[in-house]
Amino acid sequence: MSKIDWVAEHFYPARWQAVVHSHADKEELLLVLSGRMRVMFNDRAVEGGPGLIVCYPRGCVHQERSVGTGQLRLWCAAFAGADSLPLASRDTQGRASRGLGWIRDLRLSGADDATVQGIWSAVLHEVRQGATTEDDAGEQSAMTAVRAYAQEHLHRPLTLDALADVAGLSRSRFVECFRAAVGTSPVKYLRQLRMERARQLLATTNLPLKAIAPRVGLRDEFELCRTFKREFGIAPSSARRASSKMRE
Predict the structure, then answer these.
(1) What is the CATH number of domain 136-247?
(2) Which fold has domain 3-132?
(3) Per-residue pLDDT tens over the stretch 13-54
């Protein structure tokens, strides 16, 4: 039977990186609460944001680092005796996170060990339920990275080949994985993203259409007008007037 040793909440700044290390006397579980983490272990990389769970067996050589500009916040737990835990998992319902919080609070209050271990068993159940395969975990991380890249570089053309390179997949596999993860094609997602950004700029700035077009990765105001009307059913000028009236 697995036994939980301790649970703690850890905070790490942007660009933090741990040294390569292992734990000879314990197993370790990390659960991302906020920010983004990338881990390397067993010649494998896993990256994810809130809900990502990583479990290291005893003696597993690994390294963690924060990704992006935000603070990384984690639950860290040390334990022993858990068999066949997935290396990568997802806390899809938030139950594992809540359970770890309860364990931390119960330890601080001096609760009896049986109660703590009962909650720990429930946490392990959630970890196993959220298990992903190696390919699934890698492809999910890749799709998240692509979406973040698209939002950050929306002013660029962003071809399918360029996005597939970001994902580290062939073009055909990228399109398949993106549709499965996001529910739409990369081309449609980019168009929606560009038009939402254009609508935001129309509503919050006085920039002319010819200045907005390159900011959302379009050639000129004519392409902006055509694409905007296709997406929303109205011209950009009409959307701007409607936004202006709402603010009055």
Answers:
(1) 1.10.10.60
(2) Jelly Rolls (2.60.120)
(3) 988 999 999 988 899 999 999 888 888 886 677 877 888 899
Domain ranges of the chain: 3-132, 136-247
Question: CA 90 to CA 232: how far, in whole Å?
Answer: 35
Please give the Cα distance from 76 to 103 (Å, whole number): 12
SS3 assignment, position 209: helix
Say whether 52 sits in a helix, a strand or coil. strand
Statement: the pTM of the whole predicted model exceeds 0.90: no
At 209-231, the pLDDT tens digits run 999 999 999 999 999 999 999 98
User: Given this model, what pLDDT does residue 246 score?
Assistant: 65
Give dist(CA 18, CA 210) in Å, integer: 47
Q: Are 124 and 91 in contact (CB under 8 A)?
A: no
CA-nearest of 195, 193, 206 to 241 is 206
Burial call 61-92: b when 16+ CB within 10 Å, e when fewer: ebebbbbeeeebbbbebebeebeebbbbbbbe
